[in-house]
Automatic annotation (TrEMBL):
<dbReference type="InterPro" id="IPR011008">
    <property type="entry name" value="Dimeric_a/b-barrel"/>
</dbReference>
<dbReference type="InterPro" id="IPR005545">
    <property type="entry name" value="YCII"/>
</dbReference>
<keyword id="KW-0732">Signal</keyword>
<feature type="domain" description="YCII-related">
    <location>
        <begin position="62"/>
        <end position="134"/>
    </location>
</feature>
<protein>
    <recommendedName>
        <fullName>YCII-related domain-containing protein</fullName>
    </recommendedName>
</protein>
<feature type="signal peptide">
    <location>
        <begin position="1"/>
        <end position="19"/>
    </location>
</feature>
<dbReference type="Pfam" id="PF03795">
    <property type="entry name" value="YCII"/>
</dbReference>
<comment type="similarity">
    <text>Belongs to the YciI family.</text>
</comment>
């Protein structure tokens, strides 16, 4: 009986310890916040570009392969330049014909449009796009430095 009570108290104490650790707020880092352009809420403006199905109907698989290779290369170039924070396709068809999205590290819709127009698949009409201002965590770009650590193969 004492062993059960001792074990119960032990696990209860561990649970309280973990709960207390989770509640501790990380120390505010002004230098990091400033470098990321964070406001007082830790947020900043971005621009989302929703890629939609374009008007071009390209039947030639080799041509389409080249365009998609150029599309992926352009995404990598823009990410390396710090312009794209998030990019990726949607996994399901949807009524809006959204194919994928970019989150650009700019609050300027005009600048985001200049960047999306560098995409060979956009230039060829495979994709069209819609642009929206967005407000999100200023820390969002920080995940990119770890992406290569979890990537075994690039498409």
């Amino acid at each position: 009986m004492r062993l059960r009570i001792s074990l119960a108290l032990f696990f209860f104490a561990i649970g309280i310890s973990f709960a207390q650790q989770k509640k501790e707020k990380p120390k505010f880092n002004q230098e990091l916040a400033t470098s990321l352009g964070a406001d007082k809420y830790g947020m900043k403006a971005y621009t989302i570009v929703m890629l939609t199905t374009g008007t071009a109907k390209i039947e030639d698989k080799t041509k389409m392969g080249e365009l998609m290779k150029g599309h992926m290369g352009n995404i990598q170039k823009l990410a390396d330049e710090g312009k794209i924070v998030v990019a990726g396709p949607f996994l399901e068809k949807n009524k809006e014909n959204y194919r994928g999205m970019f989150i650009f590290n700019t609050k300027s819709k005009e600048e985001a449009e200049q960047w999306v127009k560098t995409d060979p698949a956009v230039q060829a009409g495979v994709f069209s796009y819609e642009i929206f201002p967005w407000y999100g965590s200023a820390a969002l770009p920080l995940y990119l430095k770890h992406h290569d650590e979890v990537t075994q193969e690039n498409p």
